[in-house]
Amino acid sequence: MAITYFPYAEHLFAIGEQDAVSGVVGLSSLQNFKVYQPYTSQNKIQNLGDKINLERILALQPDLIIISDQDEALYDQLSKIAKTIIVPGSENWQDTITKVAAPLAEEQKAEQYIQDYNHKLDQLASDLDKKGQKGKIAIFMMTWDKGFYYFAGPRMEPYYKHLGFKGWESMENNSQISLEGISKIDPDYIFVGEDYTKKTATSLKELETNPVWKGLKAVRNKHMYVVGTEIVGPLAMGQSKGLDTIRNILEDRNTTGPNDSVDWRVMALLS
Fold first, then answer.
1. Which of 5, 236, 3 minimizes the C-alpha distance to 104?
2. Does the residue 110 lie in any domain?
3. Are residues 146 and 250 part of one domain?
4. What is the pLDDT of residue 33?
5. 249 and 138, same structural domain?
6. Are residues 135 and 84 in the same domain?
7. Each residue's pLDDT tens digit, 38-69
């Protein structure tokens, strides 16, 4: 099978059908994150490049091609190589995982994954409520250029809408934000995605001596955590890992706070 939209490969990884995948366009987008390394580091799946290359897909000799609606213009050409199925894209993986599993007749696995995830989400929401964490202001972000970039919108609904973390009045779907802007929000929790690009000008280590950063409520109370960036993405395994992240922090299991480790990491998230 060839897949031209890498999130759909991730869906098959999630339900244990990675062996059905022979090649993926954009596989490198998954290779940056540890949760996907068991599937991307064994050289069993070909990286078909960052853009659709008909010759590379033809050389793979797939018996099936799955594409998203954004690649619909190439449907006729791809259909000449192998049976091609279009699955419309969505920022909510629960809208697409069963449709991606359908050509393999594995819808039941996809539905089970959704049920297990939702059960884990509901249980964590209940536990957060019991511990009085609902309504706490949280920001999920990563370092970006000379400042930060935060995430909101549909992909973050599990954390805000379901778990009960609170946003702030001027919160947009996704947007850049300065340290001064974070200071005005003064969140109770800060979750910083790892800088997998290694290109940002903002260094968390340098912020240790910044008085504005040090004055943030979350930093003072040791509620700032560096987490795997995949937890702020819209994919199934990343969001499931996100729930495990919050659970580990809630139960203080295998975690380190900002003043306990130079790496500032929630160690359980990165294993």
1. 3
2. no
3. yes
4. 87
5. yes
6. no
7. 999 888 999 999 999 999 999 999 999 999 99
The pLDDT score that the predictor gives to residue 197 is 67
Listed as ranges, residues in the chain with pLDDT below 70 are 197-199, 201, 253-271
**What pLDDT digit, counting tens, does each position of 172-190 carry?**
889 999 999 999 999 999 9
The Cα 36–Cα 14 span in angstroms is: 9
Range of the domain at 64: 2-104
Dist. CA 38–CA 19, nearest whole Å: 12
The position carrying tokens 């000008």 is 201
Q: Residue 189 forms beta bridges with which residues?
A: 138
Half-sphere exposure for 59 (CA within 13 Å, toward CB): 9
Spatial distance between the Cα atoms of 252 and 247, rounded to a whole number of angstroms? 8
**DSSP state letter for 20:** G
Number of domain units in the chain:
2
User: Count of CB atoms within 10 A of residue 74's CB?
Assistant: 16
pTM: 0.88
Alpha carbon 73 to its chain centroid, in Å, reads: 28
In a domain, 82, yes or no: yes
